[in-house]
Amino acid sequence: MMPDIHLAGEYQAILGESIYWSANAKALLWVDVKSQKIVRYCPEARAEKLWHVPEQIGCIVDDSTGPRFLAALQSGFATITLPEHSAEAIVRPICNPEADRPGNRFNDGGIDPDGHFWAGSMDDAEKIDSGSWWRLAPDGRAQLLLSGFKVTNGPAFSLDSNFVFLTDSSKRIVFRGIYDQSAGLRDIAAWAEFTSDQGYPDGMTFGPDGNLWIAFWDGACVRALNSSGEIIRQIDMPVQRPTKIAFTEDGTAYVTSARVNSTVTGRDGRLHLFRLD
Fold this sequence. Notes:
By secondary structure, this protein is mainly beta. Helices cover 0% and strands 55% of the residues. The strands form 6 sheets. It has a 4-stranded antiparallel β-sheet with strand order 1-24-23-22, with no helix packed on it. It has a 4-stranded antiparallel β-sheet with strand order 2-3-4-5, with no helix packed on it.
């Protein structure tokens, strides 16, 4: 049985991405990469607020050291402050590990079980495999984890913290590696592959049911995969390009979407929500 799917907030993104439940803000944070915006949606108040950033932003997450946030942008890692009485985010650069790759930008990211910030880079033109995975330590040092990706999405960490999942969306492959506190990951290998008619695996997260939930760009759905990489559930979405799913503390699912290069339906680029049965 399909759940009812509702709209949340009013903002319609060009490229909505990287939705994240923020314990610091008690709200959902997501970004519009191409419009250089951060969006905050508070489910309890049904309130939405936007901030502008000076360049393309791939993702934003909580900073474990305080009330501010960490972000991965076109020019690398930075801290972010979101002032309540301003529409401009305060951005303070930390480091740019890819200063030698001006055609790249950072995309999706997340926090690992030990508090490090992971983010993947990609060729902004999506033509070459120049993307890499980086891990930012609390002291501001960036560690290179993997290279050779075209469109990075993830990471997602299993609920037992044993595995990390990374996606090269353009190749329709989800990789799984053993999470390693010091090295980041090891024994990375293809874990699930998809066909062209299934769409492109985009952003992902583990749900309260213990399954890996993935949004499928050009697949018009989100799917749940079990520990063997088998699709065990599909939720059809009213948009062609859902981009990432996040769950709030009460188990409600929120899904970002994009309207870039798509036939706009009126809901493309909007934030949606549904409840799992």
